[in-house]
Amino acid sequence: MTKIATRHDNIVPYGGIFYAMNEFKRTGLDKLVDGRLNVRCANYGYQYSDIMLALFSIYLCGGDHIEDITTILNKYLSTAPGARIPSSDTIARGLKELVEVVFLRTDTFYLRASSCADRRQMYEQCKEWRHTTVNGQDMDVASFEFTDFLSGWHLRLVVQR
Fold first, then answer.
1. Dist. CA 160–CA 82, nearest whole Å
2. Helix or strand or coil: residue 62?
3. Of the candidates 43, 149, 37, 135, which has an alpha carbon nearest to the alpha carbon of residue 93?
4. DSSP 7-19
5. 95 Cβ contact partners less than 8 Å away, ≥ 6 residues apart
6. How far apart are CA 65 and CA 113, in angstroms?
7. pTM of the entire structure?
8. At what angle do helices 29-37 and 17-26 cross, to 10 degrees?
9. Residue pair 99/150 in contact by the 8 Å Cβ criterion
10. The sheet that has 155-160: what strands, in order across it?
């Protein structure tokens, strides 16, 4: 019996990520995103689909922060055929633009903010937690002013514990 070995020059430590990136494009999700949200930059730069694919890649590769795309993942992800990997700064700007677009197009807007060390102390010092039940699960919630961006829009950050 003959053994056949296939060799790939661009093997990366994140198994399957190239497949996931290809599926994002093959299924037309990139065209759907850019079609619904309009083109971000007509002649240069990154589209919203590039930014969303980068976010998916960060998540699928086990990243914790947007900065992981620049500091760890870019050298591997950029070896994918046809890869367009934006920097963490571009992703942050694109996310802000996406929030604005979605906020303006919907009646109810929710933005999920993950926990971070900067806010943890603020949450721990809060005395105004309110007990509630959401989808049959008991929890305490508190609301904080959210001014990280879009400060003129008077957004609130709701935290559960």
1. 41
2. coil
3. 149
4. --TT--SSTTHHH
5. 51, 55, 66
6. 12
7. 0.67
8. 60
9. yes
10. 130-134, 137-146, 155-160
Share of the chain above pLDDT 70, in %: 88
The 3-state DSSP class for residue 68 equals helix
CB 137, CB 159: distance < 8 Å:
no
Q: Which residues contact 139 (CB under 8 A, 6 or more apart)?
A: 131, 132, 133, 160, 161
What is the chain's percent helix, strand, coil content, to nearest 5? 45, 15, 40
Place of tokens 């993950």: 114
Helix count and strand count (H, E) for the chain: 7, 3
Mean local confidence (pLDDT), 34-48: 82
Q: Which two tokens stand for residue 108?
A: 């109810």
Mean pLDDT taken over the chain: 82
Residue 28 — pLDDT band, cuts 50, 70, 90? very high
> Contact 26/7 with Cβ under 8 angstroms?
no
Report how far residue 47's alpha carbon sits from residue 33's, in angstroms, rounded to the nearest whole number.
9
Better-scored residue on pLDDT, 8 or 149: 149
Contact 77, 45 (CB under 8 A): no
